[in-house]
């Protein structure tokens, strides 16, 4: 039996850690998913279990190497952003992998801006809102100021995708999709690290920048395969769409965060956009992509637990709940009770208002869809964009997709059936190094959702 040439992709999201094995036609021939319990850092704050993640990558790769049906040609990585691993000269982590939701000291923030520029100036230059620990550059600044003894031992501060890659290749590097995702590190106008990074000497702790298409020979397991340097997951998810579609579109990539990416809007961020949590990413070709985001996936999961607990139902009941326009009409009729106020988060709602869990769940998705509409509109730019693609978890949510189509009646709204867009994009980034076939142009199957007139939003 001849062995199948494959690419292995490790896709480490904030919640789910996945591995996909793709053949040359980008069919999934093996996949696995896992979740790891969070641990606590030295302050008692929850954080990623980096040791478990590291062992999982190496153990899974070792297992795949032993499968006689696969000939592993390449391995690549995508992970969530805003996460730095501080390694010593031997490549060993010196600290926990701090959570990007960790509270950032206000005094340290004030000290930073007093020295390096106002929040507005820094935000405009780096195309990112001021987000505390979500600005990865500020995490490294905090280490320098609060833990100087550890800072001195840092050989490199690696973004998480590049740390995972280094486990296999032994190469330490940085790349643009990770640097360019709300880190405060990159000056988008000057196309280099911001002056504050150099003035603080932080650039000396950042590994050399390498092109995202670069691969290195693997050191792990003594096998002749290549290792990519990894990508930021939101940027990786955009790659299949950029390859398959050339007319202007917006992609809503849904997961823990629901991120609207407009690769056809590279205009500088305005103060108003920054105040509304807009930012710019650098996509894999180095171009700026204007983006907005809401924490909707996380909030959805939390509120589903609350609904299930209140109505004594299983959380699994809501995974396949059908869209019922009559339920939405009922919620609209009850607007005097606050049912469709766009400025209300579902977590503020009293569940005793809802007579059934079906009403409550439709209201939850209604609230999320309205938030998504407001967020996505921020980056639409001119109206040359006429198509919206939705991938990830919410693309399978019939209620969400139907409401989104009605909220955007002048747009063609599609659910993308390629749930593993991030992983496929990660493999596509190094396509020429492992795949003998042409890049496919039929990777994405779309389901159209019509803007029905059955009720008005």
Written account of the structure:
It contains 16 helices and 20 strands. By secondary structure, the chain is an alpha/beta fold. It folds into two domains: 4-229, 2-Layer Sandwich (Nucleotidyltransferase, domain 5); 233-457, 2-Layer Sandwich (Nucleotidyltransferase, domain 5), CATH 3.30.420.40. Strands 1, 2, 3, 6, 11, 12 and 13 form a seven-stranded mixed beta sheet that branches. Strands 16-17-15-14-18-19-20 form a seven-stranded mixed beta sheet, with helices on both faces. A hairpin with a 4-residue loop joins strand 9 (186-187) and strand 10. Helix 11 packs antiparallel against helix 13 (357-377). The radius of gyration is 22 Å and the shape is globular. Residues 7-227 form the Carbohydrate kinase FGGY N-terminal domain. Residues 247-306 form the Carbohydrate kinase FGGY C-terminal domain. One of its GO terms (biological process) is carbohydrate metabolic process. GO terms for molecular function: kinase activity. It holds the Pfam family FGGY_C_2.
Tell me, briefly, the overall form: globular
Return Rg in Å. 22 Å
Structural class by helix and strand composition: alpha/beta
Q: What's the main sheet like?
A: 7 strands, mixed
Which CATH C-level class of the largest domain is it? Answer: Alpha Beta
Number of strands: 20
Query: Termini, distance in Å?
Result: 58 Å
CATH topology of the largest domain: Nucleotidyltransferase, domain 5
Uncertain runs: none
Portion of residues within helices: 25-40%
Count of individual domains = 2
Percent of residues in β-strands: 15-25%
Quick one: CATH superfamily of the largest domain?
ATPase, nucleotide binding domain
Q: Please state the second-level CATH architecture of the largest domain.
A: 2-Layer Sandwich
GO molecular function, one term: kinase activity
Keywords: Kinase, Transferase
Protein name: Carbohydrate kinase
Family: Belongs to the FGGY kinase family.
């Amino acid at each position: 039996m001849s062995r199948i040439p494959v690419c292995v992709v490790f896709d480490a999201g904030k919640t789910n850690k996945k591995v996909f094995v793709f053949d040359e036609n980008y069919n999934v021939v093996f996949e696995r998913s896992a979740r790891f319990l969070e641990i606590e850092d030295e302050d008692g704050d929850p954080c990623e279990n980096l040791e478990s993640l590291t062992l999982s990558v190496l153990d899974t790769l070792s297992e795949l190497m032993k499968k006689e049906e696969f000939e592993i040609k390449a391995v690549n990585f995508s992970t969530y952003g805003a996460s730095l691993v501080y390694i010593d000269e031997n490549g060993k982590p010196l600290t926990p992998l701090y959570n990007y939701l960790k509270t950032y000291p206000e005094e340290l923030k004030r000290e930073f801006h007093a020295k390096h520029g106002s929040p507005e100036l820094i935000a405009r230059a780096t195309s990112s809102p001021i987000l505390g620990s979500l600005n990865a550059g500020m995490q490294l600044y905090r280490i320098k100021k609060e833990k100087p003894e550890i800072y001195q031992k840092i050989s490199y501060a690696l973004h998480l995708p590049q740390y995972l890659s280094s486990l296999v290749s032994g190469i330490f590097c940085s790349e643009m999709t990770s640097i360019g995702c709300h880190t405060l590190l990159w000056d988008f106008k000057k196309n280099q690290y911001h002056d504050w990074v150099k003035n603080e000497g932080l650039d000396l702790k950042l590994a050399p920048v390498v092109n995202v298409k670069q691969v290195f020979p693997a050191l792990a397991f003594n096998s002749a395969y290549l290792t990519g340097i990894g990508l930021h997951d939101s940027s990786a998810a955009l790659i299949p769409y950029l390859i398959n579609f050339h007319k202007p579109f917006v992609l809503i990539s849904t997961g823990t965060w629901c991120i609207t990416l407009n690769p056809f809007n590279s205009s500088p961020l305005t103060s108003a956009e920054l105040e509304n949590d807009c930012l710019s990413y650098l996509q894999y070709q180095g171009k700026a992509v204007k983006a907005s985001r809401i924490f909707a996936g996380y909030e959805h999961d939390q509120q589903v637990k609350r609904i299930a607990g209140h109505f004594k139902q299983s959380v699994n009941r809501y995974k396949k709940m059908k869209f019922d326009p009559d339920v939405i009409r009922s919620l609209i009729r009850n607007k005097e009770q606050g049912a469709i106020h766009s400025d209300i988060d579902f977590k503020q709602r009293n569940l005793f208002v809802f007579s059934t869990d079906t009403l409550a769940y439709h209201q939850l998705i209604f609230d999320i869809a309205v938030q998504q509409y407001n967020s996505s509109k921020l980056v639409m730019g001119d109206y040359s964009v006429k198509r919206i693609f939705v991938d990830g978890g919410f693309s399978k949510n019939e209620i969400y997709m139907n409401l989104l189509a009605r909220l955007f009646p002048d747009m063609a709204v599609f659910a993308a059936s390629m749930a593993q867009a991030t992983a496929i994009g990660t493999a596509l980034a190094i396509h020429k190094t492992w795949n003998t076939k042409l890049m496919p142009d039929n990777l994405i199957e779309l389901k159209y959702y019509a803007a029905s007139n059955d009720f008005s939003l």
